[in-house]
Amino acid sequence: MNERIHTSTLLGQTTRTVTLPSGLTVQMCQMPGFVTAYAMLTVGFGSIDTGYRLRGKDVRLPAGAAHYLEHKMFDGPEGDAMLQFDALGASANAFTSFDKTAYYFSCTERFEEALAVLLGFVTSPYFEGSSVRRERGIIAEELRMYRDSPDWMVTANLLQALYRNHPVREDIAGTEESIAKIDAALLRRCYERFYCPDNMVLTVAGCFEEQTVLELAQRYFPAARWTARPLTVREPRKVRQTFCEQQMPIASPMFQIGFKAPGGGRENMRHRLLDELLLDLICGETTDLYRQLYQAGQINATFGSEVMAGRDFICCLFDGESRQPRAVYEALCERIAAMRKDGIPQEDFLRCRRANYGRTIGMYGRVESVAGLMAAAHFAGMEDIYYPLEILRSATAEELTQRLREDFDPQHSALSVIWPEGAKHQQQGDYHER
Fold first, then answer.
1. Ordered per-residue pLDDT tens for the chain, 434 residues
2. How many CB atoms lie within 10 A of CB 155?
3. Rounded to two decimals, what is the model's pTM?
């Protein structure tokens, strides 16, 4: 076994990383004073993995395959694994993102038994034909529910506008047409190609015994099995369209604005942290622009921002409610253009860096955040989960200005709007009741 230790003297916290002979990486962080244990098994297989290369040939997968597989992984010959977690008093769930699938639980007792359940069902898939077919209707209903959600659709429409080829533009759960192509045999192939020890990481944080984790991990992952090489997609920098709109039964218009940046590889993690600083500098609650837009009634308390990033993509988003979304978009673009030209004032930079540093430190005091950080660091090619603190400490106003000039180009941005049904509106963003 290969073992590494990383310690933060600032936090008084240590993580231990062990790579087992099978290729599985186990990352652990004991947190004294906590009574909860949180364990997560993360697989490098998400919705953007639409195929793989096998024996020199490209094998394509239907959209939504990773999400469909996540749904069926809880099945077993003796029933649903969720019932086993419930019997142990553990709270369990799973999720599929653009580039990962994760299975997790938290508990305050019977940790060893709960961990055995987690590792057991992920390493012993059970794909029974009729059960797989029944799941199609459940996922189709889930897709219809998402299409009825304005919060979901404003983002889905924006990603369709920003990206031309990249599968991030497709729904994580696929479409009703694509999931109709998924059967038990296809799920088995996906499992065999991607659910391999070298493409997984087990992260555990809180109150637990390290030796217990390592012994169970070796028991359930005794041998190596290597992952297929996922297909990649070439994505141009130019956006597909700059504006998209839809009407839905809502009370007030909703918008989302996205700035598309080139992304990929190890640098995505650093860029994400820097971009979060930039979002605060552009239109955070302490900026003059935020106050101007708020006082003019062009934004309200729903306004916010986030960075959306994965294995090979990254974009920065502003969203909220507004009767003049076009005016908000133009104000943001003007603000970014001025900052690209004049640079970032040192005083503003230091204020935002302190605020972000404080928020980041807070993440290390939550078991679920620590487990998530360990998984994210692993798939970013890092082991030290304390790297965000160092990145924030070493960041400079000049570095942020350079990133702003390179990656926050209004020419590579788009505006998505959801209007109330039956309302009069114009593309430039004005909205009137009938």
1. 789 999 999 999 999 999 999 999 999 999 999 999 999 999 999 999 999 988 888 999 999 999 999 999 999 887 899 999 999 999 999 999 999 999 999 999 999 999 999 999 999 999 988 889 999 999 999 999 999 999 999 999 999 999 999 999 999 999 999 999 999 999 999 999 999 999 999 999 999 999 999 999 999 999 998 888 888 888 999 999 999 999 999 999 999 999 999 876 667 888 889 999 999 999 999 999 999 999 999 999 999 999 999 888 999 999 999 999 999 999 999 999 999 999 999 999 999 999 999 999 999 999 999 999 999 999 988 889 998 899 999 999 999 999 998 889 999 999 999 999 987 654 444 554 43
2. 17
3. 0.93
Q: Is 417 helix (H, G, I), strand (E, B) or coil?
A: strand
Q: How many Cβ atoms sit within 10 Å of the Cβ of residue 287?
A: 17
**Do 346 and 193 meet the contact criterion of CB atoms below 8 Å apart?**
no
Q: Which two tokens stand for residue 208?
A: 């637990």
Q: SS3 for 291-324, per residue?
A: HHHHHCCCCCCCCEEEEEECCCCEEEEEEEECCC
Name, in order, each residue with C-beta under 8 angstroms of 75's C-beta and a sequence gap of 6 or more: 81, 125, 126, 127, 128, 131
Are 257 and 413 contacting, i.e. CB atoms less than 8 angstroms apart? Answer: yes
CB-CB contact of 252 with 321 (8 Å): yes
**Which two three-digit tokens encode residue 271?**
């860029």
